Amino acid sequence: GGGPGGGGGDWFHTNGVDYNEELDQIAFTARYLSEFFIIDHSTTTAEAAGHTGGNAGMGGDILYRWGNPDNYGAPGTQVIPAAVHDVRWVKTGRPYAGYLQIFNNEGNNGNSTVDAINPPLNGYNYDLTAGQQYQPSTYTLRHNCLESSDGQSASDRMSNGNIFVCPADEYMYEVDDQDNVVWQYAAGPKKAFRYECNHPGIVALVGIDPSCSVTVIENAESESIAIYPNPSEGIFNISGIPADETISNIMTHDLLGKEVYGVQGSNTIDLARNSNGFYFITISFESGDRITRKVSVQH
Is residue 30 predicted with pLDDT exceeding 80? Predict the structure, then answer.
């Protein structure tokens, strides 16, 4: 028979899944339905086959859906006009935590957007007025993407409020809460993910517990601090320390985050025995401030 995906049986084309451990719920996007859905993960297999049971008491029924109210016979505007990808809950501790965020491939007159909504969560359920569409009726937050894509794509909201965006087959970039580009990288994978430095996988890979809350001297005096010569054969000197600052310690990490050198009470860093490459030197001051500089060893 037919269906949104044609006669091949791919009616939904589910293409993105996220799990909310706190709610024990699963969200997934369906490209051909131009919607995303939430279902209960706490049910037993038997409960999932019926309409009762689980935290929400609805068994395997759909708890929430959003994007195309015409699909379930409700009035309202179709906010996801075509393909949709990469639904995800904004993580606890981040701005707009608990919101649901999607890559809306043609969200704004054919141009891609990253949309976020604040769902009407009520316990483990979602409020719904009979005969009406699921709220909100439109997006709560929107970023108009710098490039558009009709393919997989991805996005994420970071702890500092920035939005990471990967339009498939274009490039990756990050914007702040004013839509100013913070960085971009000229690689266009189908999908990409942005992990912060305290993610357990990053900590396990790097082998240290990196700090995401490094305090950096932002005043003009910090510009006077120099590490030279750079590049060098391994011996680096520090100059220009502000008069009101005293060095507590100096630590050096390689590109994998592994500590390769540490020293106290010295203005000289000796990396002469280290391999060629880039290193990050972090100078900590007794005031609690820190600065980090990248250096290059070239034997």
Answer: yes
CB atoms within 10 A of CB 247: 16
Contact 154, 145 (CB under 8 A): no
| Amino acid of residue 288 | G
Residue 172, token pair as written in the block = 């990756």
* pLDDT tens for each residue of 204-256: 665 454 455 444 444 445 668 899 999 999 999 999 988 888 898 998 988 76
Over the range 83-99, which residues count as b (16 or more CB within 10 Å of their CB) and which as e? bbbbbbbbeeebebeeb
Instruction: Residue 27: give the domain boundaries.
Output: 14-194
CB atoms within 10 A of CB 256: 10
Q: Tokens at residue 210, please?
A: 């990196």
Neighbours of 230 (CB within 10 A): 15
For 136-293, where are the alpha helices, taking DSSP H only? 200-206
Summarised one tens digit per residue, pLDDT across range 116-170 is: 999 999 999 999 999 999 999 999 999 999 999 999 999 999 988 999 999 999 9
The CATH number for 240's domain is 2.60.40.1930
* 149-163: burial string, b at 16+ Cβ within 10 Å, e else: bbbbbbbbbbeeebb
Question: Is residue 138 domain-resident?
Answer: yes
Q: Note the pTM of the prediction, 2 decimals.
A: 0.70
Residues shown for the chain: 299
